[in-house]
Amino acid sequence: MMGNASGSTSFVNAKFAEIDKLAHEVQARLWHRYKKLNGGSRPDDATVVLEPGVALAERGYRIQSVSSLGEMYVNGVKREVAGCINPQSRIVSISQLFEPPLQRFTLAHELGHEICHPGVIELHRDVPLEKAGQSRGWKEIEADRFASSFLMPERLVRRQFSECFRVEFIELSEEMAYALCGVGADLVRERYKSIRAIAMLVAATGQFNGRFFAPLNSQFRVSRTAMAIRLEDLGLIRY
Ligand SMILES: [Zn+2]
């Protein structure tokens, strides 16, 4: 039977797997390029290599940082435009009105359109992930998935996550609640009422069980929301 819930879930998963593969191919090219330019050495910080702007430049794009890109309506609400891609003139414009992590995600989102929708997208404008709301078109969801997968590679996220939290995933037990917030699970559930709320906490926390570290969102140079969504998608947070 077509159109049932599990059927559409597996369709989405297959589509996401395809997009992850495309993102991985771009990453592999950037790693290759970096090693060639740096005598075969690997950087301590992988985000130095995973630059969406470099991948766009390789495809003949010029990246423009501009003070504003005007506004557009999204689901009936006026929003500041964060980025714009023009495949004909090979220009990507990024608005300086947003914080650097949001600019970086928008750049990766535009790279996603270039890789996933070649020849389909004409002049195209975007608002940030945080302001887009629930009902995004399929192309937007695909470009977001590309950006997420490109900026936060699964293996690297799992590695950094287990380095910070010393567990495979975070599930809200009594012990976990104390390690994370210093209070019991009931109180944590009262404060953080959804899986997204817990994911947002984990994405930006700099301490766990009395140990201190750089928060995951700053390690990956993305916004708290982008990091939280990635942690959820990878099953690293369970509520
Ligand atoms: Zn878009």
Could you characterize the architecture of this molecule?
By secondary structure, the protein is of the alpha/beta class. The protein folds into two domains: 8-151, no CATH class; 154-238, no CATH class. The chain contains ten helices and ten strands. It has helices spanning 5-37, 52-58, 100-116, 138-151, 154-165, 174-181, 185-191, 195-204, 216-219, 224-233; strands spanning 62-66, 71-74, 77-80, 83-86, 91-95, 124-126, 170-171, 207-208, 211-212, 237-238. The protein has a four-stranded mixed beta sheet. The chain has a two-stranded antiparallel sheet with strand order 2-3. A hairpin with a 2-residue loop joins strand 8 (207-208) and strand 9. Helix 8 (195-204) crosses helix 10. The longest helix is centred in the N-terminal third of the chain and has 33 residues, at 5-37. The model has no long low-confidence stretch (mean pLDDT 91). Zinc ion binds at residues 109, 113, 124, 126, 140, 143.
User: Which percent bin holds the helix content?
Assistant: 40-55%
Number of domains: 2
User: What is the terminal separation in angstroms?
Assistant: 31 Å
Shape: globular
What pattern of helices and strands is seen along the backbone? HHEEEEEHEHHEHHHEEHHE
Helical run tally: 10
Radius of gyration from CA coordinates:
19 Å
Strand order in space, largest sheet: 1-5-4-6
